[in-house]
Amino acid sequence: MTFFSSPRLALALCLFAAPVSAAPSHTDPVPALLGEAHAAQTRGEFELALRLAQSAIVADPARPTSYVALGDIYAGAGQQDYARTYYNEALSIDPAEPSALKAIAALDQKTPARVLITP
């Protein structure tokens, strides 16, 4: 993987142009951002969903559910490697995060087992 295709760089570049929440600064914007991200994903607006979930991470980088949401968006788009990266980020914050554990288990079930063939 090259540096320019790393998920962290992609996240950084998207966050540079991420939308700013219209919520007052004394309220927690993360639930609204994640709700909007889910709605955008449901409508098939992948890029908008990504940017909203990334904005939730910027608003509170210590909240594992935001990383899980971003992983879910990638998983829904068929990008399991990126999804797994963000599920693992959630687990680095909270090793017992149930949504991340469940999502990784689901990815593991979808990933075909690799069998070594010996001549």
Q: Which key features would you list for this structure?
A:
119 residues; mainly alpha; Serine Threonine Protein Phosphatase 5, Tetratricopeptide repeat; 0% strand
Question: What would your notes on this structure say?
Answer:
This protein has helices at 7-16, 30-42, 46-59, 64-76, 80-93, 98-110. The protein is built from six helices and no strands. It is globular, with a radius of gyration of 15 Å. With 119 residues, it is mainly α. Mean pLDDT is 83; it is low at 1-5. The chain has a single domain (7-18, 27-110), classed as Serine Threonine Protein Phosphatase 5, Tetratricopeptide repeat (Alpha Horseshoe), CATH 1.25.40.10.
Report the uncertain regions.
1-5
Mean pLDDT: 83
How many structural units, i.e. domains?
1
Report the biggest beta sheet as strand number plus sense, adding barrel if it closes: none
Helices and strands, in N-to-C order? HHHHHH
SS-based structural class? mainly alpha
- Cα-to-Cα separation, first versus last residue: 30 Å
Fraction of helical residues = 55-70%
Strand content range: under 5%
What's the count of strands?
0
CATH topology: Serine Threonine Protein Phosphatase 5, Tetratricopeptide repeat
CATH superfamily: Tetratricopeptide repeat domain
Q: What's the tally of helices?
A: 6
The CATH class designation is Mainly Alpha
Provide the gyration radius in Å. Answer: 15 Å
Overall outline: globular
> What is the CATH architecture descriptor?
Alpha Horseshoe
